[in-house]
Amino acid sequence: MPGSTNGSTKAMGVLTVGGLVVVTAYTVVLGGNGWLWFGWVVLGLLTLAMVVTQS
């Protein structure tokens, strides 16, 4: 059905947003860490790929 997402894509989206919150909080409290941001970008791209391939 167009416009609907399955459970794994929704879970991936929640994980990506949660990861953004965690990485941002870590950066604010302890300073930036490039590897954390790199990991979050990779996770975001994987989530985006899942959303695009569902269409």
Automatic annotation (TrEMBL):
Superkingdom per UniProt: Bacteria
Keywords assigned by UniProt, alphabetized: Membrane, Transmembrane, Transmembrane helix
Transmembrane residue ranges: 12-29, 35-53
Protein name: Integral membrane protein
